Automatic annotation (TrEMBL):
Superkingdom of source: Bacteria
Domain Aminotransferase class V: 4-367
Subunit organization: Homodimer.
Key word Metal-binding present: yes
Organism placement in taxonomy: Bacteria, Pseudomonadati, Pseudomonadota, Alphaproteobacteria, Hyphomicrobiales
Function recorded in the entry: Catalyzes the removal of elemental sulfur atoms from cysteine to produce alanine. Seems to participate in the biosynthesis of the nitrogenase metalloclusters by providing the inorganic sulfur required for the Fe-S core formation.
InterPro entries: Aminotrans_V_dom, Aminotrans_V_PyrdxlP_BS, Cys_deSase_NifS_bac/arc, Cysteine_dSase, PyrdxlP-dep_Trfase, PyrdxlP-dep_Trfase_major, PyrdxlP-dep_Trfase_small
GO aspect biological process, one term: amino acid metabolic process
Organism of derivation: Hartmannibacter diazotrophicus
SUPFAM superfamilies given in the database record: PLP-dependent transferases
UniProt name for this protein: Cysteine desulfurase
Cofactor(s) demanded: pyridoxal 5'-phosphate
Enzyme Commission code(s) on record: 2.8.1.7
Length: 400
């Protein structure tokens, strides 16, 4: 049986057209784009074309607003570090409780080592930002507010254009981690007050280890990687030319497939959700079901203990991801589900299925067949679950 890959928010398969576009840049087009001879000029042209593809995908006004980086993590780090360096009279940051560790662990580090005040804005039970707390935290002391475009675990989308306007009113920069949004939902920066945006190649069928940071023209930016004058002095180091060309091709293809993400891919996700909710009792969807990425399903099955869902799905040939921070060696539910106050006994049974244009109807059928007996089997083993459809009263969750 073919494996079913439903972990596209973790990473995507590199599109065959992307691989084909990259290959010459390992062989005959190996030149350094900074070189003055023909080898360099050819490659320089390809880098420029890639920059234009990204400009078009995110609706940037100028191609030089795109700075190539090694991925989402570097872009996130660079945006915050640059904002602090370029605005030394401001020493506060605003972010949310559900950001990726690329933001949250940097903020924790800055708080500890440099005494930067970090306002962590809470979310509600659907993962939506507490707008009042955000507004209250904004002040002329804030160097940058960084709020993600869409959450990687639940797909919940944040009103970043409005949040950016609010930040601008107090003179703070606004950055958004759009690693999960770019390629899945339309992004058009032209008419927004967003100053910086992070994206990553491997989330949109491009290669790993390449990404970009959009820096709006006029925003003071301080390079965080010191070296040569590459990327107009905003990121030192010889460019990853095969990666850049691959990212450019991936951006071009993402634009072509954008409609499919909103229709066919979304329909697959919706059929899976509906089917699972019908087949498995005591199950609910986490996140803001009215406003989320079209490819992401995070489903919590109550009264399951432990991490076994993923292992059993894997045995059935299905790759998904969990709501628990199992990679950290802890069995704690993820910081995102905890921030949403999802009850412990449900957060443990949370599973994320994330689709892409590679998925087909049969993938949904396979999960609909495999998942109900897995949940049934695990509930029989769980101390939280006592018999068919009944949970002990003390474990009955209350949802705000
Ligand atoms: N931000 C978000 C929301 C992500 O989902 C990820 C990757 O999982 C990253 C940042 C990090 O991106 P990269 O893997 O390119 O460093």
């Amino acid at each position: 049986m073919n494996p079913v890959y439903l972990d596209n928010n973790a990473t995507t398969r590199v599109d065959a057209e992307v691989v084909a576009a990259m290959l010459p840049f390992f062989t005959e087009q190996f030149g350094n784009p900074s070189s003055m001879h023909a080898f360099g000029a050819d490659v320089g042209g390809a880098v420029k074309a890639a920059r234009k593809s990204l400009q078009s995908l995110i609706g940037a006004e100028f191609d030089h607003e795109i700075v190539f980086t090694s991925g989402g993590t570097e872009s996130d780090n660079a945006s915050i570090l640059s904002a602090l360096e370029a605005n030394p009279d401001r020493d506060e940051i605003i972010t949310s409780s559900v950001e990726h560790p690329a933001i949250l662990s940097l903020c924790a580090h800055l708080e500890k080592t440099r005494g930067i005040k970090v306002h962590i804005i809470p979310v509600d039970a659907k993962g939506r930002l507490d707008r009042d707390a955000y507004s209250a935290a904004l002040s002329p002391k804030v160097a940058i507010a960084s709020i993600m475009w869409a959450n990687n675990e639940t797909g919940t989308i944040f009103p970043v254009a409005e949040l950016a306007e609010e930040a601008k009113a107090v003179g703070a920069l606004f950055h958004t981690d759009a690693v999960q949004a770019v390629g899945k939902v339309p992004v058009d920066l032209k008419s927004t007050a967003i100053d910086m945006l992070s994206l990553s190649g491997h989330k949109l069928h491009g290669p790993k280890g390449i990404g970009a940071l959009y820096v709006k023209r006029g925003v003071r930016f301080r390079s965080q990687i010191k070296g040569g004058q590459q990327e107009r002095g905003r990121r030192g180091g010889t460019e990853n030319t095969p990666g850049i060309v691959g990212l450019g091709k991936a951006a071009e293809l993402a634009a072509l497939h954008m409609e499919e993400e909103q229709t066919r891919v979304k329909a697959l996700r919706d059929r899976l959700e509906k089917g699972l909710l019908q087949r498995i009792p005591n199950t609910f969807i986490t996140g803001d079901v009215d406003n989320r990425l079209p490819n992401t399903c995070n489903i919590a099955c109550e009264y399951i203990e432990g991490e076994a869902i993923l292992l059993l799905l894997n045995r059935a040939g299905i790759a998904a991801s969990s709501g628990s921070a199992c990679t950290s060696g802890s069995l704690e539910p993820s910081h995102v589900l905890r921030a949403m106050n999802i009850p412990y006994t449900a957060a443990h049974g949370a599973t994320r299925f994330s689709f892409s244009r590679d998925n087909v109807d049969e993938d949904v059928d396979r999960v609909l067949d495999a998942m109900p007996p897995i949940i049934e089997q695990l509930r029989q083993l769980s101390p939280f679950w006592q018999g068919a459809g009944e949970a002990p009263a003390e474990f009955k969750p209350v949802y705000a």
